[in-house]
Automatic annotation (TrEMBL):
CDD domains: TPP_PYR_DXS_TK_like. This is transketolase. Residues 1-102 form the Transketolase-like pyrimidine-binding domain. It is an enzyme of class 2 (transferase). It comes from the Bacteria. Homodimer. It comes from uncultured Gemmatimonadaceae bacterium. Its EC number is 2.2.1.1. The lineage of its organism: Bacteria, Pseudomonadati, Gemmatimonadota, Gemmatimonadia, Gemmatimonadales. Belongs to the transketolase family.
Length: 244
């Protein structure tokens, strides 16, 4: 028997109703692929009843469940490959509702780094003074923040981290290569920031959502809740002031 991979798909908010089955799949090491869309408060006008906030963090907390939240079409293709290869447990693939900007891979690193959970998407011009981390739809925000910081002479590295679980499985040397010790870190994700503290460290800043969302176009919701490139730039400058 073999060759059949069970999968299913729904809005991320409804993963709450599926939690017992997801947990058992992880416990039993079953190769199941869950495809969740509408993965953040960018769901917009449907409002807080349908906008996931804590779901990403709580799914990441399930042992042996691999969560993948790709930033663009290239990362999504790589995430699907990773999901097919991860035969020792279930995978949750997180996708957006809103359209995402095009990430030109002739200018940025190839998306193959998804297989290692996190990778340097765009390097600083010289040794990085700050590392900007994100996943999924918010990777575009850290790329914009990097451009603004570089204009002001601040060397910022952008790290895309679609899978914390895959990154945690890498050897320590690779993790240090991507997240060099002693360099301050800022993360941003349109979800509860709980799972990011491990990666930004106690001196870093994790920008996220610690309240329920609101019914409005997602651009307005993001602006109202501080999910902007401006906030990333502000946080990076704050860390650099502390360091100096």
């Amino acid at each position: 028997h073999g060759g059949i991979i069970p999968y299913g798909g729904t809005f991320l908010i409804f993963s709450d109703y599926m939690r017992p089955a997801i947990r058992l799949a992880a416990l039993m090491e079953r190769h199941v692929i869950y495809v969740f869309t509408h993965d953040s408060i960018a769901l917009g006008e449907d409002g807080p009843t349908h906008q996931p906030v804590e779901q990403l963090a709580t799914l990441r907390a399930i042992p042996n469940l691999t969560v993948l939240r790709p930033a663009d079409a290239s990362e999504t293709a790589e995430a699907w490959k990773a999901a097919l290869r991860n035969t020792s447990g279930p995978v949750a693939l997180m996708l957006t509702r809103q359209k995402l900007g095009f990430v030109d891979r002739t200018q940025y690193a190839a998306a193959g780094g998804v297989q290692r959970g996190a990778y340097v998407m765009n390097e600083a011009e010289g040794a990085p003074e700050v590392v900007l981390l994100s996943s999924g739809s918010e990777v575009g925000l850290v790329l914009e923040a990097q451009r603004r910081l570089e204009k002001d002479g601040v060397r910022a590295r952008v790290v895309s981290m679609p899978s914390m679980e895959l990154f945690a499985r890498q050897d320590a040397a690779y993790r240090r290569e991507v997240l060099p010790p002693g360099v301050p870190r800022v993360s941003i994700e349109a979800a509860h920031p709980m799972s990011w503290y491990r990666w930004v460290g106690e001196d870093g800043i994790a920008i996220g959502v610690e309240r329920f969302g609101a019914s409005a176009p997602y651009e307005r919701v993001f602006a109202e809740l501080g999910l902007t490139a401006d906030k990333v730039v502000e946080a990076a400058r704050s860390l650099l002031r502390r360091k100096s």
